[in-house]
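Researcher: Please predict.
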Amino acid sequence: MTRGPELAQIAAPSSTRAAVRRATFVTAAGILAIVGTLAGGYYFATRPVPLKIAVGPANSDDVKVVQRLTQAFTETRSYVRLKPIQTDGATASAEALAEGKVDLAIIRGDLEVPRNAQAVATLRKNYVVLWVPPPAKGKGKKAGAKITKISQLAGRKIGVVGRTQANVNLLKLILLQYGVDPAKVEITQFPAGEAADMIRKQTADAYLAAGPLNSKITADALTASTKDGGTPTFLAIDASEAIAQNHPVYEATEIPAGTFGSADRPEEEVKTLSFAHHIVARKGVSEATIAAFTRQLFAVRQQLMSEFPQVAKIETPDTDKDAAIPVHPGAAAFVDGEEKSFLDRYSDYIWWSLMGLSAMGSVGAWFAGYVRKDERSNNSHLRERLLEMLAGARKSDSMEELDSMQTEADTILRDTLHCFEDGAIEEGALTAFNIALVQFHHAVADRRALLMSLPQNLRAASAAQFRATGTI
């Protein structure tokens, strides 16, 4: 019996095991790549997101509120972090948003709203306060000279608190509603921070301020314009509803009696206009990010009330389709209770990744099984070879032939054990192989003992024949 083919079969399991190892390595690498991608995706999805927010002017309450929000978000390790970008005012903030330089901006609702702006929250409502200072004692006025109506402001001098042109435009809008030509009115402006001092030094027939009802600037301006203990006269904007009808950015409202620190400021409710300062987001900012920002904003509102009482009136945006400023989808999701969780946002990606892992595992298992099929087949041939050698050992007439078969059996044993470790054969097959191997060893030992009992010349002749033919 020739030994060449059998030795080739003995060498085959080594290459098969190498293929299995390569397949296992490739499969493991693929699984690790998918797991790494999932881990990286989770990190990038949950890492803090910085948003630039434009706000101004310097030293205004809006700037202080944003700075405090920035601090609060950092302290609570919130998902969204703010990076304030200070501007000259609401107009400059709106321009920064329109140009894509910032992600958020605090803008004034009665100014031109950028096309890419979407509402996130109403930061505060501003009320128009229009009043006439009391006359100084010793300087009597002619009968009928006292101003009690807006229509009597023609030819008068009006002081406007704040440098923004928006307040001047608002005053002109009110004057036109009452038939007063703005060109026939002298308008002068005071910086908000210097309004009280400027009002004390200058004389004007009436003043206009726009801000929250609890605005210290407005309260100080009213106090500064009061002389000799007199009481300012508040001018009601009775046509507020008509103005709001024609200009939806304004709202008809009232100033409650005693709003500005005493019962006579004002003595009774005064009709006026209000408009909002909005926090708006650039249209391209993701829905999840704005939803998280809106949630954080309303969560920290309580913390800021002691420092900035006006933040208590931060309101959710108007979600109606015909709102003056369209709401951002992320803010709308928060308001409507439809904010998506992490799993909601990324469930499709996670599902496809898991499917990829499953498919890769299935392919790897199929390939390993396919490769091990060849290994099992090769091992089956080796077991048959062992049984052939068992029969041959019982008939062998050469000690050298028995030694050769013993060496081959050792090789078969080594490869069989490797197959078992690789999972190519089961424990039952290993047990059957062990029985055959034990029988082979007994056969070799018995035949060796028999040959040792033969005369020396017969053993030498058998050895010579084996060397000459190499067969059993």
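Model: The chain has a mean pLDDT of 82.
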